[in-house]
Design brief:
It is a single chain. It contains 13 helices and 17 strands. It is an alpha/beta fold. It folds into 2 domains: 13-63 and 306-391, Aspartate Aminotransferase, domain 1, CATH 3.90.1150; 67-299, 3-Layer(aba) Sandwich (Aspartate Aminotransferase, domain 2), CATH 3.40.640.10. The structure holds pyridoxal-5'-phosphate.
Length: 392
C-alpha cells in the first residue's frame, strides 16, 4: 500500500480547502490526487483500493483507456446548446434508447441525479395532470427541493420546510402500504430498485411487479430512480431488468459517463412534455455524450455484465460464508453491496481505510461498497481480506 505514485510538493491542500470551501460535507482526512484502475493515491503516495469511486461515478475505474480516448472529443467540440442538433448527442441518445427496455425510447439529458429526478417529477405532473407522488421510506433521490421532497430522511428535510407538497411515503416491499397511499391525485410511484443511501435494501421482485401492475391498473406512472443502480452496477445494464419490470421513466446519472457529470431520464410513450418548459444549459453536451456512448458500448461488450455478476456472486459467497462477528446482514445486488454491522459503521469504514480500502457508509450502521465494475479478482480478494479482518 505504500507505493509512491506522485511526486507532488507538500502544498497544504487540506488546509486551503478547509479555509475556502463552503462546507456541506463532513470530510475524511485524506487528500486524493491520482487514480488508476481500481486504485487511488493520496498526497503522501499511499495507495487505496477505491470502493467509493466518486460515489459510484467511476464505474470503469480511474483512467480507463475507453474514457481517456473519448475525452479527446474536447478537441472537437465540448459544448453545444440544445437549440442545435449534435452528432455525439444523436449517437448517444440512439445507443441508450436501443439498450433501454420496452418502449423507453426517448431521452432527456441533464447533468446529475437530482436533476434527472426533478425532470421526471415535472414530466410526470405534466403527463398525468396530477400532483402527488408515492415514494419509499428510507428512499433517497437527491438534495434539490423536488428531489428532497421525495427523499425520506427527516434530518435531510426538516431544515428546509416547506418542501414541494404532494409527496407521500410508504414501506418498501410492503405492497399494501403503497396501495393505501394511492389517491385520485397520484401521478406516479417513485422508487429505487436498491435503496443505496438508505442502507442498501434491494426491492423484492414480487413487490416491484405488484407495484408495476398497480400502476397499470390505476393509471399511475412508475418512475425508477436508477441513478445508483443503472449502467451495469447491479449486473444488468438497468437494475429493473433483474425484476422483469419496465417502468415509464428511468432516471440515470452517476456512472453514465464514467465520472464526467451527466444525468438522463429515459421516457416511455406515455410521457409528454410541452416545448420550452424544461431545459438545461449543459445537458447533452458533446463531451459527456461521447464519453457516455463509449462507456455504454464497453458495458455492453459481450461477457462484461456476466463478469460483474460473477464477481458479485464471488464477493457475496465469500462474505456470507465467513464468521464475521461484527456483521449483522450482508445485502446487495451486483456490485452494490451493503454490510449492516453491530453499532456504528463509520469507525469500521475508518478501519477499512487503515487497511488500504476506501468505502462509504449508508445510514448509521451500514458499510457500502461501490467498487469499479472492472475490479480484478486480485483486488476483490484484497477487499474480502480487509473486510474479514475488520469484521471478524
Ligand atoms: C438513487 C439516487 N438518486 C439521486 C441521487 C442524487 O444524485 P446527485 O448527487 O448526482 O444529484 C443519488 C445520489 O446518491 C442517488 O443515489
Amino acid at each position: 500500500m505504500a507505493k509512491k505514485k506522485s511526486g507532488k510538493l507538500p502544498v497544504p491542500f487540506q488546509e486551503i480547502e478547509t479555509r475556502h470551501e463552503f462546507r456541506v460535507y463532513r470530510k475524511r482526512d485524506l487528500v486524493l490526487v491520482q487514480g488508476k484502475g481500481s486504485s487511488v493515491w493520496d498526497l503522501q503516495g499511499r495507495e487505496f483500493l477505491d470502493c467509493v469511486t466518486g460515489m459510484g461515478a467511476a464505474i470503469l475505474g480511474h483512467g480507463h483507456p475507453v474514457v481517456m480516448k473519448a475525452l479527446k472529443q474536447a478537441e472537437t467540440l465540448i459544448t453545444c446548446s440544445n437549440l442545435f442538433y449534435n452528432d455525439q448527442r444523436a449517437l448517444f441518445m440512439a445507443s441508450l434508447a436501443n439498450a433501454a427496455p420496452g418502449d423507453l425510447k426517448r431521452v432527456f439529458l441533464c447533468n446529475s441525479g437530482a436533476e434527472s429526478v426533478e425532470a421526471a417529477l415535472k414530466f410526470a405532473r405534466f403527463s398525468t395532470g396530477k400532483t402527488e407522488f408515492i415514494c419509499a421510506r428510507r428512499g433517497y433521490h437527491g438534495r434539490t427541493m423536488g428531489a428532497l421532497s421525495a427523499t425520506f430522511r427527516p434530518d435531510y428535510r426538516e431544515d428546509f420546510m416547506p418542501l414541494v407538497p404532494g409527496f407521500r411515503f410508504a414501506e418498501l416491499n410492503h405492497f399494501e402500504s403503497f396501495r393505501e397511499q394511492v389517491t385520485n391525485e397520484t401521478a406516479a410511484v417513485l422508487l429505487e430498485v436498491v435503496q443505496g443511501e438508505g442502507g442498501v435494501h434491494p426491492v423484492r421482485k414480487e413487490f416491484l411487479q405488484d407495484i408495476a401492475r398497480l400502476c397499470r391498473e390505476k393509471g399511475l406512472l412508475l418512475i425508477l430512480d436508477e441513478v445508483q443502480t443503472g449502467m451495469g452496477r447491479t449486473g444488468r445494464l438497468f437494475g429493473c431488468s433483474n425484476y422483469d419490470v419496465i417502468p415509464d421513466m428511468i432516471c440515470l446519472a452517476k456512472s453514465m459517463a464514467g465520472g464526467i457529470p451527466m444525468g438522463a431520464v429515459i421516457v416511455s410513450d406515455r410521457i409528454e412534455h410541452p416545448l420550452g418548459k424544461h431545459g438545461s444549459t449543459f445537458g447533452g453536451n458533446p463531451l459527456a455524450c461521447k464519453v457516455a456512448n463509449e462507456v455504454l458500448k464497453y458495458i455492453l461488450i459481450s461477457g462484461f455484465l456476466d463478469s460483474v455478476r460473477k464477481k458479485s456472486f464471488y464477493l457475496m459467497r465469500h462474505l456470507t460464508s465467513r464468521p464475521l462477528s461484527r456483521a449483522v446482514e450482508i445485502r446487495g445486488l451486483g456490485l452494490l453491496t451493503g454490510i449492516q454491522v453491530k453499532g456504528e459503521a463509520a469507525p469500521l469504514v475508518q478501519e477499512l481505510e487503515d487497511q488500504g480500502v476506501l468505502a462509504l457508509t449508508a445510514g448509521p450502521d451500514v458499510i457500502r461498497l461501490l467498487p469499479p465494475l472492472t475490479i480484478s479478482m486480485k483486488d476483490l480478494e484484497r477487499l474480502i481480506g480487509a473486510l474479514c479482518k475488520i469484521l471478524a
